Amino acid sequence: MDFVLGEKVPFNRRKRFGSVTGTIVDMMPAGRGGSRTDGCLMFASLEDREGNIVNFMVTPSTYVVDFETLSVGMSCTFWYAMDAPAPLIYPPQYNAVAAAQEKNGRMVSVGYFNTSLVNEDQTLQLHMDGSVDVRTTNNQYFQGNPSNHDLVVTYGSSTRSIPAQTTPFKIVVLCGQGM
User: How far apart (Å, rounded) are the C-alpha atoms in residues 150 and 177?
Assistant: First the structure.
């Protein structure tokens, strides 16, 4: 980390969320800590494009884009907090923070967006207008400013500039999710 007194140095955050894209090959009810299943947790096995299996625990706090029902055979992306504890097992297993079915014409970005609404790796900038629907994970209207939050951003087209710029369809604020 660079500290310089008297001049501004850009603050680069470490990317907080990782993602895996693939096809759901198995879903089953799950329990935690050796407890029996209670119907609230699902265990999803995802096969990525290279044939690797990654397992995700889907909890009631996992945000599923557009509240779609996840099912075997569905092509989707799961996001997880890279700094969260994970068991050292194979195949890897993560707690899912967010999930989205892959759809033509719909892009989804999950990550921290700063005061200028630019994401962590500075590849996407959001433009807000009156049409952008900003919600919380339980589908309530978000009453604050979405900048400086972890967001799930759903959008269509973007510019080819660096960073790419877009006016999203919908923004979901992950209030304390994945932390």
Answer: 8
d(C-alpha 126, C-alpha 143), whole Å? 18
Q: What CATH fold (topology level) applies to the domain 17-101?
A: OB fold (Dihydrolipoamide Acetyltransferase, E2P) (2.40.50)
Tens place of pLDDT for every residue, the chain, 179 residues? Answer: 444 444 444 555 678 899 999 999 999 998 766 566 677 899 999 999 999 999 999 999 999 999 999 999 999 999 999 988 888 888 999 999 999 999 999 999 999 999 999 999 899 999 998 889 999 999 999 999 999 999 999 999 898 999 999 999 999 999 875 44
Confirm if 43 and 30 have CB atoms less than 8 A apart. yes
Number of C-beta neighbours around residue 106 at 10 A: 14
For residue 66, report the phi and psi dihedrals to the nearest 5 degrees. 60, 20
**Smallest Cα–Cα separation from 161: which of 130, 128, 118, 131?**
118
Among 21, 19, 22, 26, which Cα is nearest to 71's?
26
Residues 6+ apart with CB under 8 A from 88: none
* Distance from C-alpha of 3 to C-alpha of 67, rounded to nearest angstrom: 43
Q: Show the tokens assigned to 32.
A: 């935690």
Bridge partners of 47, per DSSP, are: 23, 53
User: In the chain, where are the structural domains located?
Assistant: 17-101, 107-173
